[in-house]
Amino acid sequence: MFRTASFRLAALYTVLFTVSALLLSVVIFWIVRGTLDQQIRTRIMAESAALQAEYDAGGVAALVASVRTRELSPGAFDYLVQSPDGTRLAGNLPTIARTGWIELTVDGETGRQTEQHGERPERIRVLVTPLAGGLLLAVGDDLSRIAAMKDAVIAASSLAVGLVVLAGILGGGVLSRAFLRRVDTITSTAQAIIDGDMQQRIPLRGTDDDFDQLAAILNKMLDRISALMGRIRNVSGAVAHDLRTPIARVYHDLDAAQTHAGTPDEFRAAMENAKSGLIAALETFSALLRIAEIEAGTRRSRFRRLDMSAMAIEVADAFAPSIEEEHHGLHLDIEPGIEIEGDRELLTQLLANLLENAMRHTPPGCEITISLRRQDQGALLVIEDDGPGVPDDERSRIFEPYYRGGKPLAAPGSGLGLSLVAAITELHHAALAAHNARPGLRVEILFPRVVAPPRS
Amino acid sequence: MKILVIEDDSSTAAYIGRGLKEQGHVVDHAATGRDGLFLAGGEHYDVIVVDRVLPGCDGIGLVRTLRTTGIKTPVLFLTTLGRIDDRVEGLEAGGDDYLVKPFAFSELLARLAALTRRPPLGEAAPVLCVGDLVMDLKARSVTRRGETIALQPKEFQLLEYLLRNVGRVVTRTMLLEHVWDFHFDPRTNIVETHVTRLRAKIERGHGERLIETLRGIGYVIRAPS
Questions:
Q1: Are A368 and A241 contained in the same domain?
Q2: Which of A13, A22, A209, B89 has the fewest Cβ atoms surrounding its Cβ within 10 A?
Q3: Looking at the complex, does the CB of residue A286 fall below 8 Å from at least one CB of chain B?
Q4: What is the ipTM metric for this complex?
């Protein structure tokens, strides 16, 4: 509990509050002390002035008499009337040689009639006034009130600091316990997932606080990982099938040849079969590796600014004779000079795969259209055919690995051509969509607009 | 031709060695990068075949070392590493060609032949010819018996590549790489259809066959005997 972030935060705040409480106490103490001192001085000056007036009016005798009377009243000042030769005529202060403001420290037994503070020495503020005729008049007041005030301030600030520390520890404890409870739910969920239960999710409290938001993000991440794992499971199943099938076929061919083949021609035929089976397996393997390479995203570092229009025309030209030979029509509608950022090799393959897909899944006589147009958001590449198309409920699945339009897995082709297209599209941050061309299939790829200035 | 094969897998090395010797070539074999480097530095070879993954030394490092020591012998990488980055890396290190295992032996032979008789850069002849067919590279024109033949740009490129390799076998993948810059294998027979069209233009009505098809291997252009 003491290691949680919230407890540490609470501890930090406790320290801060303590320091500020102490500072406040010190400031209050200084201000109050200054005020008290000023009050004491004012009272002393008033008393001195009154006594001086009595001396001026009635001489030494009147002064001495007045002092003796005043001494007896409760809460009285300390006095001294000193003759020019230095003898004390009245009062209880020790004799003084200087005039003006002075501070004296006297024992508790100076003979003051008022209440004493035990053995504690008394500090007295004294104003010494010279009178006519060489007399000195001293009036003093003790500073014990300031000392008492200091004690009170210290007591009050200790109490305040004590309360702040207590509140800090309690608050920190409560906070971190609440924090730990939330963390514990995440920890236990994570542990359950580590132990193999991928379906576990972090419960939300519905408060939409930062913890809930974190939990929601983590849950989203877990969903994504689950989906990816599911896809990998499907793919690896298909891979196992796709690689095992040709390898098994090769094995059987060779096995049969070993047992049954008699003439060199029969052996040669068996080997020819075996070779083509292995080539099929290798093709699947290369396609998978290439998809993995593309999905790793490292090829983005080799992106260049490319003339997509020229590339599309070039690939279309490469395929044109083959398309014609299969009695398909090819129609180009390509706006010139459209540039995108990309990988030439992969984009060539993307165009080739889309064209081959259109050729392979349409009967002779169909028209294939390639169009490339500038749009506000970027460049839109469309490959469209007027063949039988793909049923609506299956159209979103054509980019999944091993989708073969309801045909058995053993149908020719690696089943990865359009997955490769999807991977290349994603690498280029382009949007891929398949639509019904009524009839036929229409594949649209929207490449993002090139923002960087042209390279010189 | 004297060929150095640097390959650690003894079965592959024996396969290559036997095949090349049958074609009348002299073959030296090194099983490690160190031995290979030693041989390549000491003797003259017409071409070197290097595996990318070798014990003790990477094939890339080996070729880079060869190139920095000034040895310009053509190098063909023979490897299981078939990613785009692998190929680019191999060519950037100084390799001249890149062939991914497994390969057809005819493919290796054709590529080695193309590497060894490649004319040095900058000495490209302005005119290529076979028999009575003449290609003028400057005027971008093709004539046969003085008659001009109009070709599409790709057909011209295709014919040019065949003519640069007169008398030598050129495989389908070599044409895909050099004429179309396709480094993948399309399932469509685009090479075949283009060759058919080219043939129709340069052979039909002009006399003897010039382009010979070698089934399952590739094409060769040669003067009619």
A1: no
A2: A209
A3: yes
A4: 0.85
